[in-house]
């Protein structure tokens, strides 16, 4: 049996969907293993070890592609061990005595469904507000043309709203290797939407469905 060959640059984590894809050759029966602690972060104490198997890889123009199911709460920098197929095609019963991995990889790209909650809202009644970000680690910077915005404690803190502003346009710059599903812009570009007049008006709050669509 040929030894599986892994393309480390092809590893993509769909964090919100609990899915990891990787490409290579001779991937039939290849296993993916990860370790996470009980608090959902990779490594650490109280570790939980998980594994999935790629029984039938999909044929691509570059070779083959495997799709693995992984926990949604895994950290974005979780290392994944790629293991060879088990004799007889069965999953190993004792993960503590697993063979040495063929490769250890991390996501080359992380794809998110959205950055903001679907029901996000911001109330600027008092000239300031707070908008929760689902994946703050994916945001390199934030800018609001009509106010002061900064990323802090997992949320965008909005303050010093201009007295003449009737709406607020927020721009989130993605960190390298992060992408948002359905957007063609490369990581690091501005993700922009028109002003959300019904949601971010100074003097009133509301839903920000349109703003959330940038995520």
Assign the CATH class of the largest domain. Mainly Beta
What oligomeric arrangement do these chains adopt? single chain
Q: What gross morphology would you assign?
A: elongated
Low-confidence parts: 185-215
Run of helices and strands: EEEEEEEEEEEEEEEEH
Question: Can you offer a commentary on this structure?
Answer:
By secondary structure, the protein is mostly beta strands. It has 2 domains: 108 residues, Sandwich (Immunoglobulin-like), CATH 2.60.40; 84 residues, no CATH class. The chain is 2% helix and 39% strand. It contains 1 helix and 16 strands. The strands form 4 sheets. A 6-stranded mixed beta sheet has the order 5-6-2-1-9-15, with no helix packed on it. The protein has a 4-stranded antiparallel beta sheet with strand order 4-3-7-8, with no helix packed on it. It is elongated, with a radius of gyration of 21 Å. The C terminus is likely disordered.
Q: Top keywords for this entry?
A:
215 residues, mainly beta, Immunoglobulin-like, 2 domains, 6-stranded mixed β-sheet, 4-stranded antiparallel β-sheet, 39% strand, disordered C terminus
SSE blueprint:
Elements: E1 5-14, E2 19-25, E3 30-37, E4 47-54, E5 58-60, E6 63-69, E7 80-83, E8 103-105, E9 109-112, E10 129-132, E11 139-144, E12 148-152, E13 155-159, E14 170-174, E15 178-180, E16 190-191, H1 209-212
């Amino acid at each position: 049996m040929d030894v599986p060959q892994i393309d480390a640059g092809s590893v993509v984590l769909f964090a919100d969907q609990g899915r990891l894809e990787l490409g290579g050759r001779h991937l039939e029966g290849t296993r993916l293993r990860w370790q996470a602690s009980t608090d959902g972060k990779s490594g650490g104490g109280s570790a939980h070890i998980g594994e999935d198997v790629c029984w039938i890889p999909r044929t691509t123009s570059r070779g083959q592609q495997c799709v693995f199911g992984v926990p949604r709460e895994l950290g974005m920098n979780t290392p994944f061990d790629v293991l060879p197929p088990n004799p007889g095609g069965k999953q190993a019963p004792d993960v503590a005595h697993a063979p040495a991995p063929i490769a250890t990889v991390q996501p080359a790209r992380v794809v998110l469904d959205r950055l903001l909650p679907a029901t996000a809202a911001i109330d600027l009644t008092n000239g300031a507000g707070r908008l929760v970000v689902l994946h703050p680690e994916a945001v390199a910077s934030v800018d609001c043309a009509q106010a002061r915005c900064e990323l802090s404690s997992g949320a965008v803190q909005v303050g010093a709203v201009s007295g003449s502003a009737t709406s607020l346009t927020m721009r989130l710059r993605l960190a390298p290797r992060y992408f948002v599903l359905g957007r063609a812009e490369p990581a690091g570009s501005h993700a922009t939407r028109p002003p959300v007049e019904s949601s971010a008006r100074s003097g009133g709050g509301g839903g920000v469905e349109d703003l959330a669509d940038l995520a």
